[in-house]
């Protein structure tokens, strides 16, 4: 693609990163040795904080920007530098997208922690806002009220909470937080959930150059990976319900699904058996998600084994299923005995086949072409001039086509 690597791009990246002997020409009032540092200074002078600048540039609020979104955002901003070089300098891991962590790792870590802590015990950011923060329903929370709400969420350091308060403010100079200042965290959460679902799919060819950033990456710019950036606050009750619905659709019923999963017919599933079936055979999720699902099914007071009761099967459903299986087994056994003892042509199986054959013969077929007692699709069949007994050399495929007129000069 046009943004992929090349010798010219590598040389420009070394110059813009301040790692080359060549002189770098500044594109703004801030004369910095690196294009990334200069870009950060421009954002801070225009928006006040890098987190506020990121939220303005990230229009869809997904928390990540690809190359296309990044170019459009910098064009609206009026950036006059080399956008492609700046992109590759920010995307140091060559992941194809950037986040706030590439601009301000400390602010990204604080916001990610607040997102995870808020959604651990609340279904959404809006629900947390109404229950914990905006108790008086004014949609304006001061720093004092915000500190009290964060303490209810589990925060202990007031300096950390005060810094988080200023990171969340979208309007420069404002002294109160509104619900609109936190809604972007819900979009971040939904993006991470979609990413988690996409992990179940196989990874195919990716348009990346593994040798691009290895020569340009500056170790001083490597940010500390936060422990909250990859966490997703999942509602395990909904995940368990979705898994039960998936088993019912795949196998027909939960009892049938449990019996198919229990290969050794022991009446219970261990973690290894459950993980192997769910992650390997069914390919429902990855191994780590299968382990979390197993722990959610057995509960905290479980015996370490998954039984049919813990899968959500009632005693009535299990008893009815076992009785149906027993009756089906007896019927098959009785039919096998009758087929073995009956004389030739008088067994129930042969009589059923004979009756079915007679019904198919007597069945009125619709007008059309049939091959092997099956109707041909429209437009299928032999050509109009096809004669099976003629050899291929004697067939005239263009018998009805008129001959082209001869020119007057031809002899």
UniProtKB/TrEMBL annotation:
This is EF-hand domain-containing protein. Residues 372-411 are annotated as: Disordered. The keyword Nucleus does not apply. Keywords: Calcium. Residues 45-80, 249-284 form the EF-hand domain. SUPFAM superfamilies: EF-hand (SSF47473). The keyword Nucleus does not apply. Residues 375-391 have a biased composition (Pro residues). Pfam families: EF-hand_5. GO terms for molecular function: calcium ion binding. Coiled coil: none annotated.
